[in-house]
Amino acid sequence: MTEYFSAQYRVYYEDTDAAGVVYYANYLKYAERARSDYLRHVFHAPSMIAEKFGLMFVVRQCYIDYLRPARLDDALDILTRIIAIKSATVEMEQQIMRQEDKLTEIRVILACVDCQKFQPSRIPQALKSKLITGAKS
Predict the structure, then answer these.
(1) Residues 76, 106 contacting (CB under 8 angstroms)
(2) Is 114 marked active-site?
(3) Residue 49 host element (H or E)
(4) Quick one: fold of 5-133?
């Protein structure tokens, strides 16, 4: 649906286990940072969605396929794109890359919820349009 948004991160000692390999849960942290950076790219700050629309996105489902390990001091490129927007959910695909090597594939479904009630909410067309086009507000 959208083109990939790219965010770069470095693997630090704190991200790894005793063997210098990235701890499995930290891939989800990299993915979360990249999704936040995508929203910052579109809205200048992820908090603008709450301010402008009274809504926020929460992770409803996440699937991750670990293909190869990342290691201490690797430069990672996290590719993020929207693959589907439904009435109250956004499905995203993410890939964590080290140069040409794909390290992980991630599929995440974000649910749109009302900031006050924490109940599912429809995604307004204006918000959908911005997410799809990546146009800054």
Answers:
(1) no
(2) no
(3) helix 47-53
(4) Thiol Ester Dehydrase; Chain A (3.10.129)
Q: Which pLDDT does position 136 carry in this prediction?
A: 55
Residues facing 6 on adjacent strands: 79
Query: Please, which residues bridge with residue 22 across strands?
Result: 16
Q: Active-site residue among 17, 65, 73, 101?
A: 17
Mean pLDDT of the residues in the chain: 94
* Strand-by-strand arrangement of the 55-66 sheet: 5-10, 75-85, 89-98, 101-114, 55-66
Percent of the chain with pLDDT over 90: 85
pLDDT per position as a tens digit, 58-73: 999 999 999 999 999 9
Q: Where are the domains of the chain?
A: 5-133
